[in-house]
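so my prof wants the structure for this chain in the tokens format not the other one, which i didnt know existed until like an hour ago. anyway here's the sequence
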Amino acid sequence: MLAVAGLTGCGQQSPPAPSVDVSQLRGATIQPLQAQPVLEEVPPAIPEAPLAGKPQVAEVAKLKAGARYWQNFAKLQTSLPVTAQSPQAGRPAEPPSNAVDPTPQVIDGYRVVDFKQLTKYIFKVPDDPVTEPAAKEMLGENEIPEDVQALNKQKIALKGYMLPLRTEDGKVVEFLVMANQALCCFGAVPKITEYVSVRMPEGRGVNELKDIPITVFGTFKVGAIVENDYVVGLYEMTGHTLNGPIDL
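here's what i got, hopefully its the right format
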């Protein structure tokens, strides 16, 4: 007689199996083991919903506050008008069509002019004297915009930077008004449309104001300025008054 014992997991020893008469098994056909069904995992039980009851006062207050917040948020989103100020994805906001330009159009009878208007086109300047046929032809091909021509002999106010040219008795009597500070302070060569030559009346020099924006009031002139047969400028002014920084 042979006793067979099996061990179970976790180090515990199973109880001894009953004795089997081996002589009875001799010559018997061994039956194949039947496959055991695969055990499916049983999902954890879903906890039952708590019984309906009256929540605590603090929890009710939180729920009411949250509901009011999202209700107000939804109302705000639907009530906002769609305007040009609402930026779209990847595009900057645009000003509304009815926006008012804060820049004054006229100051004390002087029309406010911006350098953007004066520099928006290209004026070709010949290197040769204007007495040469090629230079005359080049000058004749230039076209000054009508809105710029309309400023000729008009009283304007122009903002820019001063580059003194001539002084008398400690006062500046002739200077250039430059479109930006780089042209007058860092040696950059300006285009002929980026500066205006200003001459003050006799005995009415002005203080030197460098490195700060100034505003010049005077009579504007448009047309090629020729000195010694060479074109040296396009715009000039007879200065009336000069103010320091004015935010035009």
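also thought this was worth mentioning. The longest strand covers residues 213-227.
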